[in-house]
## 1
Amino acid sequence: NAGVMQNPRHLVRRRGQEARLRCSPMKGHSHVYWYRQLPEEGLKFMVYLQKENIIDESGMPKERFSAEFPKEGPSILRIQQVVRGDSAAYFCASSPAYGGSYEQYFGPGTRLTVT
Amino acid sequence: GESVGLHLPTLSVQEGDNSIINCAYSNSASDYFIWYKQESGKGPQFIIDIRSNMDKRQGQRVTVLLNKTVKHLSLQIAATQPGDSAVYFCAENIPGGTSYGKLTFGQGTILTVHP
């Protein structure tokens, strides 16, 4: 069974460019969560999505950041006009479609470096 | 705001000893807690979870204790091995509204196991 997959694993962008991070959840999982981790800190929730719906984006910056989880294909976290402060590890987690389970399985992360 | 935090940022133990990692939480409404292990350059790995209607849960070499009276969570690792060296995070779920499944992470404790 493949786990949560994220790509790319490392991404370098210059200030002002766009970053697109992809996440494929585990098979059978339809809930996807994105978290950001700064060095030596815990993970901070960004957004929670189900297929074709954003359920909770309370942790996402209002500008430049967007997320989607289309009916087909991976979930995408998009950061426009990146700045140095966006440099961080971005983790995606997925959980099963049935209710009652909070257990989340994390991917290996994408490490974004803005130069 | 309310958050999850840790008493000890670092813990060093000898191989074979038992390790105890502590976590304090401040939201009495939290109904679910997870411990994650994160090795350098990797995503968080699920270790064990516990619901708020339980005081103790055991896994393989690990035990989680929940004391709701003082809002304290601990992770006990028996016969600690060098492969247990990692950062350990506790996370909580605060129920209600659209926050289903949104985890709030603590800062993390660095566990170092010496051979």
## 2
Amino acid sequence: DIQMTQSPSSLSASVGDRVTITCQASQDISNYLNWYQQKPGKAPKLLIYDASNLQTGVPSRFSGSGSGTDFIFTISSLQPEDIATYYCQHYDNLPLALTFGGGTKVEIK
Amino acid sequence: EVQLVESGGGLVQPGRSLRLSCAVSGFTFDDYAMHWVRQAPGKGLEWVSGISWNSGSINYADSVKGRFTISRDNGKKSLYLQMSSLRAEDTALYYCAKEDIDGRMDVWGQGTTVTVSS
């Protein structure tokens, strides 16, 4: 089974800072990697799909990159409303399965 | 409006069963695969099970294989999760989620809480 390792598990940054989260797959997953934002008490929200594509309606300060085993999620300028936990997620279709990273909790310093 | 509404959660004793439902509206249900994802209190997201649009492909996380059964009724626009032999570690908020394409979960319900305790 493919494992997704996300780091850091938490971070604290100031408003306007650039924030970077990494996700590493235990084997090559091409670009089958999505990123979600989960605010406290809310369901997850899809932000980035296929490693680098911005979901419709998501602010352009969010971005993703990478392929193979190493992926990066970036918030270019942290805003107060970005306080949330962020998850990477891989998808397999043979057999059908999703694998989530452990999550990164982002807080304001 | 695209909407997923879960129901059926509650407090149940270990070893007992529970059936979760997810009613959908606002999109053509039988065009899409669907998934159940859970989140234990204070923990991360854990995929539980997924089902293709026509129920031809079904899979489960190892943690629930043999105890949980996913199903769908396209006519009723509903997704189900039959949970049996429940354990304390199954305590979680259970979300249903719509798969847009290639594993993108683009719509989520608000979740239903399952608590397994004596």
